[in-house]
Amino acid sequence: MTAPPHPLPAPDTRLTWLDRLRARPRARTALAAALPVGWVTLFLFLPYLLLLIHSFWRLDEHQVIVHQWTLASYRRLFTTNVYPATILFSARIALSVTLLSLVLAFPLAYLLAFKVRRHKNLMYMAVIIPLWVSYLVRAYAWKIILGQEGILNGLLAQLGLIHQPLQFLLYSKWAVIIALTHIYTPFTLMPIYAVLEAIPPSLKEASQDLYAGRFQTFIHVILPLSLPGVLAGSTFAFVLSMGDFIAPQLLGGNDSALMVSNVVVSLFGVAYNWPLGAAVSVVMLMLVVTLLTIANRFEERFNYRGERGGAVKADALAVVVTESRA
Amino acid sequence: MPVTRGDWLSRALWVAGIAVFVFIYAPLLVVVLYSFHNSRIIAWPLQLGTLSWYGVLWHDRGMVDAVVASLKLALLAVVIALGVGVPGAFLLDRYDFPGKALYQRLVLLPLILPGIITGVSLLTFFTFIGLPLSAGFPLVPGWPVVLGHGTALVSVVVTQVFARLQRLDRFQEEASMDLYADAWRTFWHVTLPNIRTALLGAALLVFTLSLDEIAVTFFLIGRQNTIPLQIWGLLRRGITPEVNAISTIIFLVSVVVIVIWARLMHDPQGARA
């Protein structure tokens, strides 16, 4: 007996399985979403969630974290003066940094957007390049400038303006404010430049046709239109400087102990109280998210192009760089 | 038009603008100049004229190890960020699914949150699942820090690639499909060439940001320091001129990489798409 002739080659079932899957829109979406959503859920969502959960756990007498629900950390946070005080102190520092950065960034952004004619993109790039260049180096540079034997004291002494080096320059909140302002000014500038750049020249011309002077044009046309950018820039500066712990540790001296981010560092380090550290972080996170949401609301209202989202959305950082030059 | 007043105003504006420019660059210049400072003590006045701090750097075993560790870390971060970020950008550009807005926000959080919050979250996570911070050493500086960098920087890839995809002309893809190219061929021959510069640019950006990252690294680092943490360690023992030398090198490398990135992102070939 001979074997029956081999039937037709079996269809490639693997392929048809995949094809069938791809033919169904829902399954296709699931397939496309699996890696990016899965990864982000595992390594981003779960960690943030776990931080929240930790804030509701507690330490036992042997400094071991007990998985037992309690509000103890939050109670301690809000009833001990030191924690609200650090949050307020950090907020005040962050506010100073934000205002200073705005004052510095706005004129430069205005100049770049309206006055610079040649090499405009090159100039803009030059301003924002330091953003991507070693954060630590930028903070540390101020140590050389503000130190007791630093450049500023040296110059002032040479000019005969001082006889003793100024002690308060370094290792104080002033040093932290100056360094953070230096670090976040280009950050603040980016979104302001982006909105100024997007203002059609026709609007300025229309304002001038209606006999508005430069000042009036600025107050009634440019300034309102720049608000979304100003808001985005200030949010960046505020949030990032409030969470900064490197510059305070490097330049802040005793004042750095008063910054909330340094309290978090110590609670997760030497002080070893993760539940309390987590609670402080969560409060910080809530403040940040509230601020971002409010800024987003305002920003949407001010955005004359009525674009969804706009600059405050977190995508601003990179997209602003891209779009403003596209 | 009151011409004289206008001139006065714009002159003031120029002065202010240039002053801010100087404020941004002067500290960086100070670091670069002091890397050639001919004294152990960093003080005014500046004494230019030595390359010896670069030599010290070269013979500093800890620093060399940190450079190697940082480079490994940055490369792995690029791999992870691209591997997750590119599908993520496509997902956001082309698919609708429940929770899309939430996903978008979540991905971008590390970009906008202070690094410290992402850092302590990841620290609690890796401790909770029991992955030691020095796991994988000496092959990598530690898996937690690698995963942390990669994940935090997915946001950068997503924003960069998403921005390019949004500008992409979909008719080209449809034309390709009409000519019976399957999805893979269309992707390979039509979509990919159009977003290539964005991918390269994103990779460069992730690479630089990883080299410079300190907030997340601070919490996740195991036994092996990265460059910024090694510098951090030196600074805590007091400032040494060696720090200026390594800072100058970092500065120059970052500027070169960022300029290439800017070129790629605004490459008219890619942008026309």
What does this structure look like?
The complex is a heterodimer of chains A (326) and B (273). By secondary structure, chain A is mostly helical. Chain A has one domain (70-325): MetI-like (MetI-like fold, Orthogonal Bundle), CATH 1.10.3720.10. Chain A has helices at residues 13-23, 25-54, 72-79, 82-115, 120-132, 135-146, 151-158, 173-198, 201-209, 214-242, 246-251, 260-268, 274-302, 316-325, and strands spanning 58-59, 65-66. Chain A has a two-stranded antiparallel ribbon with strand order 1-2. In chain A, helix 2 packs across helix 13, helix 4 (82-115) runs antiparallel to helix 10 (214-242) and helix 6 (135-146) crosses helix 8 (173-198). Chain A is globular and about 100 Å long. Chain B is mainly α. Chain B has one domain (60-272): MetI-like fold, CATH 1.10.3720. Helix content of chain B is 78%, strand content 0%. Chain B has helices spanning 3-34, 52-59, 61-94, 100-112, 115-129, 143-167, 170-178, 183-212, 215-220, 227-236, 241-265, 268-272. The longest helix of chain B is centred in the first third of the chain and has 34 residues, at 61-94. The chains are: A mainly alpha (326), B mainly alpha (273). At the A-B interface, helix 2, helix 4, helix 5, helix 6 and helix 7 of A face helix 1, helix 3, helix 4, helix 5 and helix 6 of B.
Please summarize what this structure is:
Chain A is mostly helical and 326 residues long. Helices cover 72% and strands 1% of the residues of chain A.
